[in-house]
Amino acid sequence: MGTIGDGYDNALIESFWGKMQVELLNRQEWTTRTELANAVFDYIEIYHNRWRRHSAIGNHTPAEYEQQHPKLQIAS
C-alpha cells in the first residue's frame, strides 16, 4: 500500500469496476435491484473469477491456469 492520496492504491479496483461497467452494466437495464444484484454476482463469481482471461497469469483463465499448474494450489 502507498501513502494517503496515492493513485496506485485504487488502481486495481478502478480497473475492475471499469471493465464491469463496459462488459455488464452498460449493456442492459434491470427492472429490479434483485435482478441487478444477481447479474453482478454472476459476472463476478462465474465470468470474472472463472472464465475471464487475466494478464497476471499469462492471459489464461483461472481454470486453465489451475489445470496447467496443479502443484501451485494452496494446501488447506
Automatic annotation (TrEMBL):
Record Pfam families:
rve_2
Q: Which InterPro entries match?
A: Integrase_cat-core, RNaseH-like_sf, Transposase_IS3/IS150/IS904
Q: Which residues form the Integrase catalytic domain?
A: 14-68
Question: Which SUPFAM superfamilies does the record associate with it?
Answer: Ribonuclease H-like
Q: Name one GO biological process term.
A: DNA integration
| Protein's recorded name | IS3 family transposase
- UniProt cross-references to PANTHER family, sorted A to Z: TRANSPOSASE INSF FOR INSERTION SEQUENCE IS3B-RELATED (PTHR46889), TRANSPOSASE INSO FOR INSERTION SEQUENCE ELEMENT IS911B-RELATED (PTHR46889:SF4)
